[in-house]
Amino acid sequence: MENRPDMDTAFAQPISAIRNLAPTARCKRLQFAIALMTALAPQAVIAAPGTVELVPHRAVYDMVLQPASGVPQANGGTGRMVYEIRGARCSGYNVSMRWVTRSSTPSGESILDDLQYMSWEAGDGDNFTFSSTRFVNRHLAEEMESSATKGKDGAAGEISVSKPEKITVPLPAGTIFPTEHIRLVIADALAGKTVRNDTVYDVSDDGKSIYDTFTLITPLAEAERASGVAKVPSLETTQAWSANVSYFLKGKEGGGEGLPEFEQNFSLFANGVATTMRLATPHVIIDAKLTEIEFFPKAEC
Fold first, then answer.
1. Rounded distance, CA 159 to CA 258, Å?
2. Are 15 and 80 in contact (CB under 8 A)?
3. How does 83-111 read in b/e, with b if 16+ C-beta sit within 10 Å?
């Protein structure tokens, strides 16, 4: 992984125990939320949807986890995550993420869980590849690799999963990939729009999941804005929004009329800084706060 020593440094501080909250799928779902929170560069304010650029950066988040209401025999905890994005529309976007937690079983056994994720998406949004590796107590526990390609002019394409087993499934016509989703939501926020619907290849669980998404964009609450400005004073005059994205598993009975598989809510500042986010699933709620961020030079095309 590029610049791995810096990512390792971000995990040098102690991480408290997390009980009964395996992070594998949730980590991948957080990719969209974190990227969208930290995506906007100042020049994007006047950009059209096809020219929105994502600012290269590395961000470190501390997280607080708690069981969702009604979940029995579950405890909360804390964790740490490092997210990095590099690239540009001309060359494509590389994303890497690492999530480390220390958990304990009901019997008191300590578990170190280390999940590492990397992806590349073409700047035109037509191709997407990703891989993830999970270590438990420093032993390899899980590997996943997949790629997807759109058909010509938005027609149906193909998903090819190579790990843990080789399978090929159709990519429905009109499906978009995570970075393109980010850019479209950003463009709508800048244009003053408040609602959008998309079909997204999310790669959350088995490498082949497709989600119908509903995004609601609203003004950021003053208290949230004030908290962000207190942490990063340069945000004082920066435009900001609150975005809520609901994910519905495509093809599931009930569709978008039922309850979402998970929801993400986050603060979005127009200069690329984010301070808070929340991921809610039927089993766990994760609140994350930005603790540090480093911006990289813009990629040359």
1. 26
2. yes
3. bbbbbbbeebbbbbbbbbbbbeeeeeeee
What number of other Cβ atoms are within 10 A of residue 219's Cβ? 12
- Provide the residue range defining the domain that includes 68: 4-295
Among candidates 202, 177, 191, which has minimal Cα distance to 52?
A: 191
Residue 300 lies in a domain: no
Confidence of residue 61 (pLDDT cuts 50, 70, 90): confident
301, part of any domain: no
Total tally of structural domains belonging to the chain: 1
Structure tokens at 107: 């019997």
For the whole model, what pTM was predicted? 0.80
pLDDT recorded at residue 19: 34
Cα separations (Å) of 171 from 128, 186, 202? Answer: 12, 24, 12
Backbone angles phi, psi at 187, to 5 degrees: -60, -40
What is the rounded average pLDDT for all residues in the chain? Answer: 78
Is there a contact between 265 and 241 (Cβ–Cβ < 8 Å)? Answer: no
Q: Tell me the C-alpha distance between 300 and 165, whole Å.
A: 37
Which residues lie across from 38 on neighbouring strands? none
Give tens-digit pLDDT for 23-45: 445 555 555 555 555 443 333 34
